[in-house]
Amino acid sequence: MWQKVYxxxxxxxxxxxxxxxxxxxxxxxxxxxxxxALSKSEAGTWVxxxxxxxxxxxxxxxxxxxxFIKFYSGASKERSAEVAGSAWTLxxxxxxxxxxxxxxxxxxxxxxxxxxVALFFKWSGLYYLVSLPWFLATCVIQSEQQFGKLxxxxxxxxxxxxxxxxxxxxxxxxxxxxxxxxxxxxxxITSIYALFKGWAxxxxxxxxxxxxxxxxxxxxxxxxxxxxxxxxxSTSDTLIINFLLGKPALAIYxxxxxxxxxxxIPLRSFAITAMPELASAFNQDNRSGVIAIMKKYAGMLSxxxxxxxxxxxxxxxxxxxxxxxxKYVGTEAANVFRLxxxxxxxxxxxxxxxxxxxxxxxxxxxFYKVLIMLAVNISSDFxxxxxxxxxxxxxxxxxxxxxxxxxIGYWALNKYIKFSYWNIFSxxxxxxxxxxxxxxxxxxxxx
Length: 447
Prior knowledge:
This protein is mostly helical.
């Protein structure tokens, strides 16, 4: 039995999932502290600031992460160093551009009326600078599938931030400026830690090459669409709610949406572990293998999300009270959470269709798909707001861009190799049963 426990703990899927569970747990703790310590208006401002900050950061992470893993995974030591050094070069260029925009905007801040917009332009440049080393370290670690190290980096980042927020609350000095300051400080500490451990591989910048920089650039300019698809729609919701319904409504909507980490935890974990496998199958020109891997991950996640969605809908009011406190009880937050859970079954196929398209060198399809999905999302958001005048209309509208993205992704992958959409779920069910049997505790099988 203990050998099975040890094998499970060492399993890369378990390490990836455990890392995301721990990080999401710390994220919920952070959100709980912030929501309970700040007013609805301040909480809404923090949500807006962080949403826009991470959306813009997606241009960097989306540009580099998939391309880095694709060209780095399975490569020789010399090629790996060349890829890492070239990624550092592009990362510095993108970060420098973002920082320049941020610092240049300081001269015009007095004309900005929205607090969230002002905070973004004031502090975003510094955030992108201090977070670059640990971000590139995670690219290296994911490519090498060393998920234990990835957990350490995330613990350093999120754990230190939770600690600082707790200290602020204990000392009675919690306010929005202090929250932002310690958010930046936590990212700085994490980057120093990654550099000290040598995981960021900053010395590889000497092995960069123009050819590899061009390869990453031409792949990344389209693959950024996949990463944007995970963030863009919630951020467009944030912008629309912020300017049409106000900061308190944004805090309420985000509280319900934040609990969707119950879905994002396995989604991110499986995506991290699937990408190297998909890349390896594609590099071996194994088309059926690529689709089989995609079916396995998307199908397993869809099956696993069914009980999660049912349980979440039944108990939605409980986490809303725990995280937000009494001032959010009786608001739309719980029902927003229920609506998102209802649509959750559609998320895995859409996400893994996009991921697979990147791996098979069809990032351009994802780029155009994201533009179409964004147009559908924004138009349906405004329609939902017009019909309901509340966050319910915007929450309902979420299903339309997800359906749009799924249809486009399925159509594009069928041009690569024919497969049945519904077969994803039967494969997922079979793979889930096989995984449970393989990791079942108790007496060993005699077979």
